[in-house]
Write a structure and sequence with these properties.
Bound molecules: iron/sulfur cluster
Number of helices: 24
Number of strands: 27
Largest sheet: 7 strands, mixed
Low-confidence stretches: none
Number of domains: 4
Helix content: 25-40%
CATH topology of the largest domain: Rossmann fold
Distance between the termini: 57 Å
Shape: globular
């Protein structure tokens, strides 16, 4: 039996994994501050993916259009020879790398180093770009630091009010909801979501408020709440004077957002806006209040500004950096936080260092044993990277690790077409995902409980996941893959396949950076210490609450940035008069590559559906369960109608876990935020018809 953590979301619930006789394993929950002995259904069934019937155990190469089994030597030889040829003919930028937000810190770090040293390419990014990039950008410009929650999750327990905007943890991470109970009991849970989600339903019976704004208007809603705080003199003037810059500019920027105008834009009544603002203000002066954002607010072409508006609200109340109060964003993917701290992001080096900073380049190059001048510069963020594939001067080969972009990309038909233009697509995975099925070479790799590595959870806490079961014959770890590929490519330096050696190097590369891991080691984590970054030395206790004394800006003060309304990129038209929003369901995780292979989960939610209000259904002539077609300017998908009063009549919802005709990302918009490069996955203008003919 090995104590470890769940393979899925950033809550990283603690569990024991016990190998089962005859293969596979069982899991049992462990008591841990974040999950308190609970697991959601995804966690309970997570071990089933280890023995998925279609588990890959031999490399595959494409011959005459078909993927056929081969041996590792042949597969790696083919990959290395093709990469060498493409680099010789077109330069190192001909190779691109795309990583996943579930890779361990060791793998995220090593993949970043492999791309920049062994391949010498700037073209690396990761699907965490679709998770936290707007929250990260907003946090950095206000606080100088991006750590999802700059406080332990248990701090939420004592708050009188929590504003949760664009997040549905009752389905995405159910054990998290135990931390909302204090606010519920105080009548102070405020949920902002255009749907009556299970999380929004937690506000019923006097336990809080559910605000259901028009999709794409979260920013205006936040401007309105902040304006009420200022106009009713509910802000914390002492805190603002002591710890915050930009107060006058913010105040002036709010003047036009009187509540009646906000009601007109968002559809949320003035009285509800005032109740929410006062509730938060009362709590901030009582036991405490928190403002938390999620992807619903962030995955927009103006997501960074929406996050900034949420931070402005929190700063006006004096919450960030105060014991018992705060601002944070809820990371989605298991290691969305650690992945961007250690080099998967196009513009970052380990330790959350900028790849354009000469001192950062010199430090990291020193650890890596290369000349700083040999390190490439910043690459392209995910959407731009995919758009560049196969274009003149663009990448002609791509290596994908731990991601399934053929389901998860926005405007997925157009961007998937770019993959078809490549000379070489190499996918490492443990099952034949939709993306692996398109590859020229598929490398079967270990997963989660079969390898040792660390994860950084949504609180910035380091967790060790020790190897708990023996991997099947024929698979390799990705660290082993990169080690051998680097050698075959003639890399100037070697790449260790030992996760503890890689982690040691990571800690040295991060030393002195914003995300300083220098004080961490596998042994320290194995001892069970609760360690949060930054942690600059082996005897340093780590930093659970980094903002208590000062923010990470040059003068230690948080910065208010005025922002203003920006409508969704898609305008509603007579032909496309309905807003589509997307999200997750209880049973599935991200692209569904894992959870769609768990029979108990797939039996409950086996295919795509679309939620629509009875009024809309009646107008369209659509019956419950009927197949409908959802189309946007990008493409169309199909789903079974699910009629519910828990959604606005002008809005429909679809989960994004499904491939092929049920892939909602055929419809979503790849327009990106100018600061974070986050695509607008959360709102699109659509038209809907009965699949059998026009409604
Ligand atoms: Fe916990 Fe998330 Fe795993 Fe569910 S999916 S058990 S909430 S870590």
């Amino acid at each position: 039996m090995t104590a470890t953590h769940c393979p899925y979301c950033s809550l990283q619930c603690a569990m024991d994994v016990t190998p089962a006789t005859g293969g596979g394993a069982t899991v049992t929950p462990l008591d841990f501050p974040t999950n308190r002995g609970r697991l959601c259904q995804k966690g309970w069934t997570s071990a089933e993916v280890l023995t998925a019937p279609d588990r890959l155990t031999t490399p595959l190469v494409r011959r005459d259009g078909e993927l056929v089994p081969t041996d590792w030597d042949t597969a790696l030889g083919l990959v290395a020879a093709t990469l060498r040829r493409l680099r010789a003919e077109h330069g190192p930028e001909a190779v691109a790398v795309f990583g996943g937000g579930g890779l361990t810190n060791e793998k995220a770090y090593q993949l970043g180093r492999f791309a920049r040293v062994a391949l010498a390419t700037p073209n690396i990014d990761y699907n965490g770009r679709f998770c936290m990039s707007s929250a990260a950008a907003g946090g950095r410009r206000a606080f100088g630091l991006d750590r999802g929650l700059p406080f332990p999750l248990t701090d939420l327990d004592g708050a009188d009010a929590i504003l949760l905007i664009g997040s549905n943890p009752a389905e995405t991470m159910p054990p998290f909801c135990t931390h909302l109970a204090g606010a519920q009991n105080a009548g102070g849970l405020v949920v902002v979501d255009p749907r009556r989600t299970p999380t929004a339903a937690m506000t019923s019976e006097g336990r809080g408020l559910h605000l259901a704004p028009l999709p794409g208007t979260d920013l205006v809603l936040l401007l309105g709440l902040t304006q009420i705080l200022w106009s009713e003199n509910l802000v914390d003037h002492d805190y603002l004077a002591a710890r915050v810059s930009g107060v006058n500019d913010l105040r002036a920027s709010l003047a036009a957002w009187w509540p009646e105008r906000v009601e007109r834009v968002t559809g949320v009544p003035v009285a509800t806006l005032r109740r929410a603002a006062r509730l938060l203000a009362d709590a901030s002066r009582g036991r405490g209040a928190y403002v938390l954002t999620g992807r619903g607010a962030e995955q927009h072409a103006h997501g960074t500004d929406t996050v900034t508006a949420a931070i402005n609200l929190a700063l006006s109340l004096g919450l960030p950096g105060r014991a018992g109060s705060g601002y944070g964003c809820l990371t989605g993917q298991g290691n969305g936080q650690g992945g961007r701290e250690h080099g998967l992001k196009a513009d970052q080096l380990p330790g959350y260092r900028s790849i354009t900073d000469p001192a950062a380049r010199a430090h990291v190059a020193g650890v890596w044993g290369v000349d700083p001048d040999d390190l490439p510069g910043p690459g392209k963020p995910a959407v731009a990277l995919f758009e560049s594939l196969g274009t003149p001067g663009g990448p002609r080969a791509m290596l994908i690790h731990g991601a399934n972009p053929v389901v998860s990309l926005p405007d997925v038909l157009r961007l998937t077409d770019r993959l078809r233009t490549l000379d070489l697509l190499v996918v490492s995975d443990f099952v034949l995902s939709e993306t692996a099925a398109m590859a020229d070479v598929v490398l079967p790799v270990t997963q989660w409980a079969e390898e040792t590595g660390t994860m950084t959870n949504l609180e910035g806490r380091l967790l060790l996941r020790d190897r708990a079961v023996t991997p099947p014959d024929g698979v390799r770890t990705e660290l082993e893959v990169w080690s051998e590929l680097a050698e075959r490519l003639g890399s100037p330096v070697s790449f260790s396949a030992d996760p503890s050696v890689v982690f040691g190097e990571l800690t040295r590369a991060s030393a002195g950076g914003v995300a300083d891991y220098a004080g961490f080691s596998h042994d320290r984590l194995r001892d069970g210490e609760a360690l949060y970054w930054p942690c600059p030395a082996p005897d340093d206790p780590g930093t659970p609450r980094p903002f208590l004394d000062r923010f990470t800006t040059p003068d230690g003060r948080a910065v208010l940035h005025p922002v203003d309304e920006t409508p969704p990129d898609d305008a509603l038209t007579p032909d496309m008069p309905i807003y589509l929003v997307t999200g997750r369901v209880l049973q599935h995780y991200q692209s569904g590559a894992q959870t769609r292979r768990v029979p108990a989960l797939n039996a409950v939610e086996p295919r795509a559906y679309v939620e629509l209000h009875p009024l809309l259904a009646r107008r369209l002539g659509v019956e419950e369960g009927e197949q409908v077609r959802i189309r946007s300017r990008r493409g169309a998908c199909e789903a079974a109608a699910r009629i519910t009063e828990g959604i606005r009549p002008d809005t429909v919802f679809m989960p994004f876990h499904y491939p092929d005709d049920g892939a909602v990302n055929r419809v979503t918009n790849a327009a990106t935020d100018p600061v974070s490069a986050m695509p607008e996955l959360k709102v699109a203008a659509v038209g809907i018809e009965r699949a059998g003919g026009a409604a």
